[in-house]
Amino acid sequence: MTERVPVLKIGDVLLVSIQVDLEDQIVLDLQEDLASRIVDSGARGVVIDITAVEIVDSFVGRMLATTAAISRMLDAETVVVGMRPAVAITLVELGLSLGGVRTALTLEKGLNLLARPGIDRPAQR
Amino acid sequence: MSGLRPVPDTDHQVITIDSNDDVVRARQLVRGLAQRCKLSLVDQTKLVTAASELARNTLVYGGGGVMRLGLVQRDGRTGVTAVFEDSGPGIPDVDQAMTDGWTSGGGLGLGLSGARRLVDDFTLETEVGSGTQIAVTKWAR
After folding, report:
1. What domains appear along chain B, each with residue ranges and CATH number?
2. Residue A93 in contact with partner chain B when CB distance is under 8 A
3. pTM of the shown model
4. Residues of chain A positioned with their CB less than 8 A from the CB of B107
5. By CA distance, what is B41's nearest residue in A?
6. Most exposed among A1, A51, A88, B120, judged by the fewest C-beta atoms under 10 Å?
7. Residues B21, A25: contact at Cβ < 8 Å?
């Protein structure tokens, strides 16, 4: 009965735009959905858009960090885009700086980041 | 809660926290009151985030409980207070539980210590075997 966050595919990037107040089970479902979608689709990148997210607590923060780690293991890079200033301030004060998570200010910048052959990724395979 | 007095003519809300949905609801109620109290956006976000951590603790570690929420006044200032109460196992070692990174469950161990940093006032009363009560307040500037 719990809703799920839709995972959209654009080229070789999976896009998740979080538009609801995240209940913990939705967060866990999303993590699993993303992992299987990465493998099924062979996506090389994941963009998580949190423009509409009003708060990121330690549970959601941890989800962002583990999702980035999981997708890296599955050969995809994650970029979190659209974090609100108040959310950034609160996260750092909470003690979560999301060190392993790449961020970009906007969806466009996030997609550009993934389109660029990164330092940590071979340009050709 | 000494020195704090409720703002007259405002409703004090009490909700039970027995499911993940209740955690979401607790956040929304705190957000609504924080807006009414005219907390800045950053302060609203901090308070709601702290409430989210504490509501989840109430659910996960306390086995469920209640949140009481209301506006309070002290020295001419208005603030939002949220009190989380459970009848769970209590916290045997409060100093340890308040340490960054310490967790008795699968969490990050930032819930209590992080929540304390995000609010202006933080009080914790706990007794092993009978439960825990945590009150947090954020004052309008």
Report:
1. 5-139 (3.30.565.10)
2. yes
3. 0.90
4. 58-59, 62
5. A86
6. A1
7. no
